[in-house]
Amino acid sequence: MSMYHQGQRDLQDAFGSRALADRLDETLRHERFTDRDAAFIAQQSFFFLATADDQGRPDCSFKGGPAGFARVIAPDALIFPDYDGNGMFRSLGNLTANPNVGLLFLSVGERPQRLRVNGTAEVLHDDPLLAEIPGAQLLVRVTPRDIFPNCPRYIPTLTVTAPSVHAPEAGKSPVEADWKAHPMFADVVPPRRV
């Protein structure tokens, strides 16, 4: 089954790239995580998450944590924790209304890479893996439909100098975001779930 719809086909035809698009689909796209995919994802400390609500209105979110916070647990399953945030639950709320999801993993060093994962997701409230992930309040499980590397040529060469001080670590108290103490929000910030 092709991963392209008619709008994409129309543009491929207009720019003469249908044969290239088909070759990329035939040779690079897969439906199950490979060991190489799993290793790449395990090295990343962030990714971008695209969701849409029940009306199809999109939302994109940055997700970050310690390297390996998102991980492949089976050829057909990737998990990542939801950490304490701003309480809007835009992404996870969307997933409860529309399970379709897109994840974009990037490495930004001297050899940039990117990997796309499109599929469906579910939000888990009481999965046993939650207890194994410091700082996790919910867990998201993604079942892939399309996994494919993407050309990294426009990714700038960046240097990550340190992980976020807010990334949860086992045995350490979480560092709260400064904005939560601001008088505009302090009276409505709920207590952190443990």
Automatic annotation (TrEMBL):
Domain Pyridoxamine 5'-phosphate oxidase N-terminal: 34-133
Superkingdom assignment: Bacteria
InterPro entries reported for this sequence: Pyridox_Oxase_N, Split_barrel_FMN-bd
PANTHER family linked to this entry: FAD-BINDING, PUTATIVE (AFU_ORTHOLOGUE AFUA_6G07600)-RELATED
Protein name in UniProt: Pyridoxamine 5'-phosphate oxidase family protein
UniProt organism field: Phenylobacterium ferrooxidans
